[in-house]
Amino acid sequence: MRLAQCMCTVALTLPGASSFTTPRRVSFQRTLQTLQRDAPTIRQQTQCNLFGAKKPPAIEDRTYPEAKPATYDLQAGEFGFGPESIVRPLLKQTQLEKRKLKVIYNAKKDGWDARKFHQKVDGKGASVVLVKCRGQWIGGYNPRGWASLGGSRPSVASFLFYGKLFGGWQKLRVARGGGMACGRDEFDVGVYFGSDALVMPLNGNQPRSIASRLGYFFESGPENKPTLLPVKGANLNADELYVISGVYAKGEDIPNSGGVTDLGLY
Predict the structure, then answer these.
(1) How far, CA to CA in Å, does 220 sit from each of 2, 192, 199, 211?
(2) How many other CB atoms are there within 10 angstroms of residue 248's CB atom?
(3) Cα torsion at 179, 131, 237, 207 (round to 10°)?
(4) Around 46, how many Cα atoms within 13 Å sit in the side-chain half-sphere?
(5) What are the backbone dihedrals phi and psi of residue 251, each rounded to the nearest 5 degrees, phi first?
(6) pTM listed for this prediction
(7) Which residue, among 135, 256, 120, has the nearest Cα to 190 in the 3D structure?
(8) How many angstroms separate the Cα of 120 from the Cα of each of 133, 145, 200?
(9) Cα dihedral value 191, 93, 85, 238, nearest 10
(10) What 8-state DSSP symbol labels residue 54?
């Protein structure tokens, strides 16, 4: 018994004996180190569970706005009574959304004539056609503009619109891929959205004649309208006709001011 006690005493007094660590103490130290290391993560998870996970910051959509169908949403208007102010709420998610606007064609001033129409609008890029017919405003947005190059100028972002009875606007998106924002881009032909959705040839004996049939190239909308016109089943005469486009600095590139592809993507 004394021999065993002596051996134990010698072992404990050997050099380095003070750093001797039992297996149980090693396990405790490792557990403590793990808790200290993971404490921030555990604290963050607890905060998320108690206060709700933080939402990641919203990613701004930097894609070209007219690579997708038009939105039905409207944007804030601007003070004024001219054609530019009238159409401003319609231009959300378009090239013209934040651009200053100007009237480039006024039929009463410039003439109800297709050739005069093209002299004013060709090469001006995306434009809005605004028509007043029997007291109601109707029209369409042409992202491709006009260039008198013949053929059509399609775009999925094109839309028609009409003023609602009790105020506000209703947009009508394209019903088929491409939409034929400009159905006929010819120097002696006026306004064509699709082949029949909104048509004003601006020639012949009735230069103010306007026709519209919805459902094929452009949708009929929530009211299932067969036409944009105030009176269905009839061709009417326009009282006023304007084309509004953006204001560009001298030398600034105007998108779609010349030839365009037929893919209808922009």
Answers:
(1) 107, 17, 16, 15
(2) 16
(3) -80
(4) 6
(5) 85, -10
(6) 0.74
(7) 120
(8) 22, 11, 16
(9) 20
(10) P
Length of the chain (residues): 266
The answer to whether 194 and 216 are in contact (CB under 8 A) is yes
Phi-psi region of 109 (alpha: psi -120 to 50; beta: other; left: phi over 0): alpha
91 DSSP 8-state letter:
G
- Cβ atoms of residues 122 and 186 within 8 Å: no
Q: pLDDT tens digits, residue range 69-123?
A: 999 999 998 777 899 999 999 999 999 999 999 999 999 999 999 999 999 999 9
The predicted-structure confidence for 154-196, as pLDDT tens digits, reads as follows: 888 999 999 998 889 999 999 875 557 788 999 999 999 999 9
Gap between the Cα atoms of 183 and 218, Å rounded: 12
Residue with the two structure tokens 């060709």: 122
Q: Residue 232: how many CB atoms within 10 A of its CB?
A: 12
Closest CA to 196 of 150, 140, 244: 140
